[in-house]
Amino acid sequence: MPTPSILFVCLGNICRSPLAEGAMRDAARKAGVPLKTDSAGTGSWHIGDPPDRRAQAEAARHGVDISNLRGRQVTEQDFRDFDHIIAMDRQNLNNLRKLDPGDGKAKLSLMLDHVPGKSGQSVVDPYDGGASAFESTWRDVSAGVQALLVKLGCSGR
Ligand code: 4NP
Question: How far is the CA of 15 from the centre of ligand 1 (A)?
């Protein structure tokens, strides 16, 4: 079976989606699951930027290093390259639907759609919040990542 691929998408690609990418990579590595992951933003402000320092610190608290990630913007090619494109909130999901070239394979969803009892909910933008906002982001993306591993059939390994 080809390696599944997942792209996580938020607005700036410096807070939520790099945390989701870091959490997913860490969980997949620990589970011994081959998985291609990346993250991107619907906005262009932070192209080439490392993740927000507060996001880096929150990931580091959980033993995950995201300092080498760099911001990029979603492209039409992403819809052809990835099996799943997972948006952090409804605004991102709506923007992705507008960007979808229609000839790709990617299935679009919200991160919390995968978490029982949280379907339709958004991972709240922590950018204007404090450290507790980033803790909340980590909790949400971790729950999403665990649920995704279960769906990919890899949870028991
Ligand atoms: P993110 O957070 O979408 O989780 O990366 C944001 C980062 C930057 C901005 C907005 C949200 N910004 O407006 O620059």
Answer: 6
For the CA of 92, the closest atom of ligand 1 is 3
Tell me, what's the pLDDT at 154?
59
Residue 125 has a pLDDT of 97
Q: Does residue 64 have its Cβ closer than 6 Å to ligand 1?
A: no
Give the Cα-Cα-Cα angle 82, 2, 107 (nearest 5 degrees).
30
State in Å, rounded, how far the first CA of the chain is from the last one: 17
CB-ligand 1 contact for 10 (6 Å cutoff): yes
Which tens digits make up the pLDDT trace of 21-48?
Answer: 999 999 999 998 899 999 999 999 999 9
Q: Which residues are catalytic?
A: 10, 16, 125
Q: Which domains does the chain have, with CATH numbers?
A: 5-151 (3.40.50.2300)
Q: What is the DSSP letter of 47?
A: T
